Amino acid sequence: YCSMLLADAGAEVIKVERPGSGDPRRSIPPFAQKGDIKKAGGFMAYNRNKKSLSLNIRSNSGQKIFLDLVKIADVVVENLSPGAMRRLGLGYEDVASVNPGIVYASISGYGQTGPHAHRKAHDPEIQGMSGIMYINGDSEGPPMRIGFYIADLVTPLFTCYSILAALREKERTGKGPHPDVSMMDTLTSF
């Protein structure tokens, strides 16, 4: 959603997908069909205005291609488990070594550091942990989940905002920062 907003604003976005299967959303109905081509509607909506690249970033050749792209990029957005990109040699420090001006935005459930950083996170859990369920629903009743995936939608908005602010900082300093945006921080701030 974050990169979709950036693409909608005119950024050239290259989505890196896993070879073979690609983004899991490619196989989730409903599907739109035109002739012999069948595409998942949700995938098309969230990936409009983007280019896609199938790239195995676990391989040496895939990492080289990724870093070659980074050399000419302004922003990297990643939402893998905290530390996954670093373990592949593609973390913020690695990427900044080939492009010091890169803005490297990380999106996760609980942030890149801290006691919960490696916990899996899902929107309903974050709604509960952040306290937003407590203030929703009848004051005499139990906590109630908000009816849509608010953390999954608002966190990318905060990330987009953070990226735009980071690009402004890059203009002033020449160094690209590493915005670390978590679902927990986002909903807690609400």
Characterize the structure shown:
By secondary structure, the protein is α/β, with parallel strands linked by helices. The protein contains 8 helices and 7 strands, in the order H-E-E-E-H-E-H-E-H-H-E-H-H-E-H. The protein has a 3-stranded parallel β-sheet with strand order 5-6-7, with helices on both faces. The protein has a two-stranded parallel ribbon with strand order 1-4. It has a two-stranded antiparallel sheet with strand order 2-3.
Summarize the structure.
By secondary structure, this protein is of the alpha/beta class. The protein has helices spanning 2-8, 41-46, 60-71, 84-87, 92-98, 123-130, 150-173, 183-189, and strands spanning 13-17, 31-34, 37-40, 50-54, 75-78, 103-108, 180-182.
